[in-house]
Amino acid sequence: MNGTVVGIADGDTITVVMPNLEEVKVRLANIDAPERGQPWGNRSKQVLSGMVSGREVGVRQTDVDRWGRIVGHVSVGTQDVNREMVAQGAAWAFRRYLTDPSLIEVEAVAKRDRLGLWAMPEAETVPPWEWRQGVREPSAPGPAPVRQQALPSAVPAGAAALSCGPKTRCSQMASCAEAEFYLRQCRLTTIDGNRDGEPCEQLCGTASR
Q1: So where are the chain's domains?
Q2: Cα gap 9→119, rounded to integer Å
Q3: CATH assignment of 2-122?
Q4: Catalytic residue numbers?
Q5: How many angstroms from the chain centroid is the CA of residue 15?
Q6: Could you report the per-residue pLDDT of 150-201, keeping only the tens digit for each?
Q7: What pLDDT sits at residue 157?
């Protein structure tokens, strides 16, 4: 199916208007881009925007994710956008859902040549799936301790002072940063009512996107 890109959420999610004027969110298959707040997160979004924003794209659907987004391969003419994001060092090959193993080699070349995010210090190149996880389970046997936030170094500013608590609604959040923390680190999906990956749209100023 074809449509025109009218929105870029981040480096791996776009909004496409179809010929019938329906807007659909598309999650690029096989890749995972840095989250907003991660090092290189904004740059990754800019790279994707430069390739597809306002342009007609082809979308080859492979799945639908748990948020109702289409998962698929995006192309502009003959350009494979998903592959190009990895080739430019703007995204990782998403190991957990990878159906194209050749992207591992594409990523390795980008890393070798220090392209995009790979030019950053190694401590800042935290895979998004690890950055989102936040909580590390104890590896040693025995009674499980109280779970604590073991945040990687590449977390949003001020996140180290936050912790998962009893808050469940956007009205309880003191800031957009706290809302982001609760969604990404505490997995509080109830504050992402429309399942677009953006918490508390009114608080974070993304309601009109």
Answers
A1: 2-122, 148-204
A2: 23
A3: 2.40.50.90
A4: 27, 35, 69
A5: 14
A6: 333 334 444 446 778 778 888 888 877 777 777 777 778 787 777 667 778 7
A7: 44
